[in-house]
């Protein structure tokens, strides 16, 4: 892989398509948008571990972790490290960005245009949706690999699986069985309506579709569920789309 200098900035040439990418010394890899090659940046060698500042132990009684640099002499779990600068937040500020926690914009951010999500772990400069993080190793698949299992996406068997006998679906966090079962076997958020054991619909209130959960139709006075990927229910989808087009 060759490099060139543009305005004093080292550029790495992708071996797949020749596209020039910024060689960012602060990340471990750069992903070419054109052909999805993963390139290592050209930069100075990593610092010698012996030159790093010696870590001090957490002073919380009985804790054997190292104290976070900066802030109080405790590990992150016991209140150490720099705190998020967002008013009222007590979480730890993420390194590699503004002094905020991940929820308030701290840490490394995705470098894709108009994206403000956190960059995926592992040194990638992109979020999972834009190619960052581990990818599924199934032939021809480029989805994000799920944590807690082989390097595969949920569709191809990655992540935690449902523990119900004979079921191989993805386990959902929360629910009646904790994080050990799929939605059909009690995993995931459940409807908050008294006596209802159905799964709560994604988005909106914590209820199933029958009890008002999920996205609702945007048509005035209509309480039906919105069609998947649309703003209106099946009845108002055509008329709603038409009225919006006319108003534009």
Automatic annotation (TrEMBL):
InterPro entries: Znf_WRKY19. Residues 107-132, 133-158 form the WRKY19-like zinc finger domain. It comes from the Eukaryota. This is Disease resistance. It comes from Chrysochromulina tobinii. The lineage of its organism: Eukaryota, Haptista, Haptophyta, Prymnesiophyceae, Prymnesiales.
């Amino acid at each position: 892989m060759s490099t060139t200098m543009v305005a004093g900035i080292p550029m790495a040439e992708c071996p797949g398509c020749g596209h020039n990418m910024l060689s960012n010394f602060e990340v471990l890899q750069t992903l070419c948008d054109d052909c999805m090659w993963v390139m290592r940046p050209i930069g100075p060698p990593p610092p010698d571990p012996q030159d790093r500042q010696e870590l001090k132990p957490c002073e919380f009684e009985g804790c054997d972790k190292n104290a976070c640099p900066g802030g109080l002499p405790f590990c992150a779990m016991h209140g150490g490290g720099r705190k998020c600068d967002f008013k009222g937040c007590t979480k730890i500020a993420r390194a590699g960005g503004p002094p905020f926690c991940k929820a308030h914009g701290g840490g490394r951010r995705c470098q894709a245009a108009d994206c403000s999500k956190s960059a995926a772990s592992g040194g990638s400069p992109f979020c999972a949706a834009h190619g960052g993080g581990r990818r599924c190793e199934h032939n021809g698949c480029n989805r994000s690999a799920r944590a807690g299992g082989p390097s595969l996406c949920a569709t191809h068997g990655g992540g935690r699986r449902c523990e119900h006998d004979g079921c191989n679906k993805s386990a959902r966090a929360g629910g009646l069985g904790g994080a050990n079962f799929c939605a059909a076997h009690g995993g995931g958020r459940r409807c908050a309506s008294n006596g209802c054991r159905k799964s709560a619909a994604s988005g909106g209130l914590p209820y199933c579709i029958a009890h008002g959960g999920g996205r609702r139709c945007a048509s005035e006075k209509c309480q039906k569920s919105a069609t998947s990927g649309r703003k209106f229910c099946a009845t108002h989808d055509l008329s709603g789309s038409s009225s919006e087009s006319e108003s534009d």
